[in-house]
Amino acid sequence: MKLAGFGCSFTYGSELHAPQIDPRDHWANTRYRTQHTWLGVLARLFACSVDMRAEPGNSNFAIAQQVADYFNRLRNSQEHIVVCVGWTESSRMSWYSDRWVHLGFAQNTDTWRASAREWRANATNDTYQQFTDCAKLMVNSICQAHGVPILQFNALGTHPATRYSNYFLDGTSMNSMLAQAEREDSRLNLFASGGHPNEQGHEYFAIRLHEFAKERII
After folding, report:
1. N vs C: which end of the chain shows fewer Cβ within 10 Å?
2. Looking at 66-218, which runs of residues are DSSP E strands?
């Protein structure tokens, strides 16, 4: 079995870094980072492999397209796959040319700055939610059509409840759950300095996600 993970930095594992590796050597840190994400911990608990497809700054619009592309490339694979999605802030947007460019990074580049400004100026909360609702419907429909289980939750942002039975903590988020846990138990330290979950945060979340997945998904 393989867990194919899609999402933003909360799935990718931003700020997870092996202490013995030079922080500037991003690729040397890939194995450590992946193993210590909620996805990596969940794979260890299920004794299966991981296919990390998340990207920092990702949007829900891009996540849906990435899931679709993943299945287009698999086509005839007989491997047992479980799609795992950590949905992100609804207000994010991405553009594609030869690769995905995400709003948070686009604002800092000359090539995409005008498009990013235009999106920010014209999009509304209803626009954001419509893109996110369509993205969730698309991903769930694709997985259903292929007979592939999907495990999903909100990593970041305020999302209304969806009523999908495969949704962990529907209506809240990983970020909110970890923040609440810290407030309730002062001994917990679940976030890195930049606001992403640290190793303890990912593990804390994955253990609870594992119980849900055993009961509902796998």
Report:
1. N
2. 81-87, 94-96, 100-102, 150-154, 167-168
